[in-house]
Amino acid sequence: MSMSSNGSHFSATSGSSPTASSLLSSTASAPAAATPDKHVGMTGSYQKSSKPSRSWIALKRLQYEYTFGVFMMEPWEKRVFDAAIVLFVGLFGYAIWHYAPGAAHNLVARSTFYVAAPEAS
Fold first, then answer.
1. Which residues of 93-118 are buried (b: 16+ CB within 10 A; e: fewer)?
2. How far apart are CA 99 and CA 91, in angstroms?
3. Alpha-carbon distance 46 to 59, whole Å?
4. 10: how many CB neighbours lie within 10 A of its CB?
5. How far apart are the first and last CA of the chain?
6. pLDDT by residue (tens digit) across 11-63?
7. Could you identify which of 7, 44, 50, 96 might form a hypothetical disulfide with 62, taking C-beta atoms 3.0 to 4.6 angstroms apart as the criterion?
8. Rounded-to-integer distance, Cα 26 and Cα 8, Å
9. Are residues 73 and 81 in contact, defined by beta-carbon separation less than 8 angstroms?
């Protein structure tokens, strides 16, 4: 009786199950060990580049995709999600740019008043 297990073939006598030794001696290869240059098991294409800046950017992109789960999305979903993130960060940056100077001035004015307040009469 010939059976297939993950692409490897082993034979066993009819009516019996395969033994551990027959499974261990099958020709199935073990997964490759992770090397420092290529991360095994990641769907991204991060590989160390000859230019450190490219390698750093690729690593940060891969970390972003894994942190927020973007790696599971379709390409069009990634674009929509990235656009939403850019819009949110842009609006947040505009709000800080627009309102922070006034808030800082108000904070300094109130702090100055409380620190150097005139004595009560």
1. eeeeeeeeeeeeeeeeeeeeeeeeee
2. 12
3. 6
4. 19
5. 106
6. 444 555 556 555 555 555 555 555 555 544 555 555 666 777 888 899 999 99
7. 44
8. 6
9. yes
